[in-house]
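Q: Hi! First time doing this. I have a protein sequence and I read that you can turn it into a structure. Is that right? Here it is:
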Amino acid sequence: MSDRAFQHRRVHNLLLIQKLFGLREGSSPFTLLLDSVEQSAKPLIQYYTHSAKTSKTDVVFISYETLVPPPDANTLIKARRKDPAAIREEITATVSETKRTPNFLPIPILHDQIQPQPGTLLILDTLTPLASNAHLNFPTFLSTLITPSTSLLAIYHTDIPLPAPKTPYVPTPLTLLRYLATTIITVHSFAQVLLRKRAAEKSLAEPVFGLAEEKEGVIVGLGANDPRGVVLEMEYRRKSGRGVEEWFFLPPVASKEKVVLLDDHPLYRRSDSVGGKNATDDVGEELSTFDLGITAKQRRDREGVVLPYFDAQVGGGEGGRILYDMGVEDDFDEEEDEI
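A: Yes, that's right. Below is the predicted 3D structure, encoded as structure tokens:
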């Protein structure tokens, strides 16, 4: 990719992720967050609530497993051991209360001077109880929560098994969620992403972590929930049907850093120039005292070298032959040439 194309991609996708965080213009009515024990979505939830507070958006937090909600949440609804119909009624009443405006205005205000009402962000800390409820029409329940001024942000734990459907032709809850969502964000551990990239550059098998290791007693792998930040794998679907896919690095909310493309992060980009040597210093990798990798320029120069035996491979299927260029001192003999 040329520098100009990469610069256009950087500016466009950074503006897009900021638009999604700021919930501007109904950019994503239903955002699905996919997390696991290797990387929780809580840092991303804190970033969403902080951005909602900045944009004066009301946050309604629906808790199934969270005891302490994010500090920027306006309303907490405890949904544990409640019927889905009762939860929906409570959500509707809460959203209506936050949007209620007084019927009497003490000072005459022109219609053009009335500020637009802020939107509402509904956050579901887990979809597992709803997805495992066999008596609930899962897609219909979620659709009733979304309105033109209300967006839904829900977390799905990919490592929690769910009951198998009664018939083999029924799609799984995750398949339905991927179909309904307008934005899908998968969170990854930053340290584990660096380890995978380093293994790919050295043509090694991709490392596995946590439950994927299939080792007795191992639940969480090395480098899980990296405190330096979260890697976001985003898939955004436009109204036209065209999708946008990008990887981002999200620093902690308390830090002064801003969200950047993963390719622009120093630790991730450094492995392109030094073969990943310094990518995993913080997770205890033993490094040699000299450089074993090659730079990106050296890699491109190596791929551009045309070796002599490449000419002999042109026109395959003719059998073995010897290519020899005669010099000035060679004596050409027609009889030997016919042989």
